[in-house]
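Quick review question:
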C-alpha cells in the first residue's frame, strides 16, 4: 500500500493515511470520536410510535424524509381530514407485498387501499401490508373480496382506518353493507 501512496498527490496521501488510521481503530474496537466525553452532544431520549418503532433516530429520519425531519408521531386520521374538506390522494395496492406497501406508503400518498377484491391476497396476506403501511404512517383501507359480515369482521380485526365494500351497485347493496357495519359491534371505521 505504501508504494501506491508514494505516487499520489500529498492531499490524497493524507486522506489515505487517515483512512488507514480509521480502519485500524475500527478493527481495534476503539472509539473513532476523539472528542472528550462531555463535548459530544447527548443522544435524545428515545420516542416510540404505537407499534414500537423508534421514531427519533437520526438514521431513520434521514432515510425516510428528504428534509431529515422526524416522522410525525401522530397517525394521519382519514375521517377528520375528509370532514375538514381536504383533498386526499391515495393508491390501490393490487399485490399483497409488504415491500410494495412500504414503498408506496413512503411515497407520500394520503392513504392506501389494499385491494383484496381484484388484487392477489386474502385477509391473512393483508396483515403484513397493514404493518408496513403503519410503519410508514400511511392510513390503510381494505377493499374486501366479498360482501359478508364474517369478512368485514375479520378485516376490522386487522385495524385498518376503513373498509371498502365490493359491488355496491344499488341502494339494497348499500343497506346490506351498512348492516355489516352494524353487525361489527358498533365499529365506526367503515
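Suggested answer, residue by residue:
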Amino acid at each position: 500500500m505504501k508504494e501506491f501512496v508514494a505516487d499520489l498527490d500529498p492531499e490524497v496521501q493524507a486522506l489515505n493515511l487517515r483512512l488507514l488510521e480509521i480502519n485500524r481503530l475500527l478493527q481495534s474496537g476503539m472509539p473513532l470520536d476523539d472528542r472528550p466525553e462531555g463535548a459530544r452532544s447527548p443522544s435524545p431520549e428515545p420516542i416510540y410510535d404505537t407499534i414500537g418503532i423508534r421514531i427519533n433516530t437520526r438514521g431513520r429520519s434521514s432515510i425516510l424524509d428528504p428534509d431529515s425531519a422526524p416522522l410525525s408521531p401522530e397517525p394521519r386520521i382519514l375521517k377528520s381530514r375528509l370532514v375538514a374538506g381536504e383533498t386526499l390522494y391515495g393508491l390501490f395496492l393490487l399485490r399483497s407485498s409488504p415491500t410494495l406497501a412500504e414503498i408506496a406508503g413512503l411515497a407520500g400518498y394520503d392513504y392506501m387501499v389494499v385491494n383484496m377484491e381484484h388484487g392477489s391476497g386474502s385477509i391473512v396476506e393483508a396483515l403484513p401490508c397493514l404493518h408496513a403501511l403503519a410503519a410508514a404512517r400511511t392510513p390503510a383501507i381494505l377493499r374486501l373480496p366479498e360482501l359478508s359480515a364474517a369478512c368485514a369482521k375479520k378485516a376490522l380485526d386487522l385495524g385498518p382506518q376503513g373498509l371498502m365494500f365490493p359491488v355496491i351497485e344499488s341502494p339494497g347493496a348499500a343497506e346490506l353493507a351498512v348492516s355489516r357495519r352494524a353487525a361489527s359491534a358498533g365499529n365506526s371505521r367503515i
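Why it works: The first strand starts at residue 90 and ends at 93. Residues 78-183 form a domain with the TIM Barrel fold (CATH 3.20.20.60).
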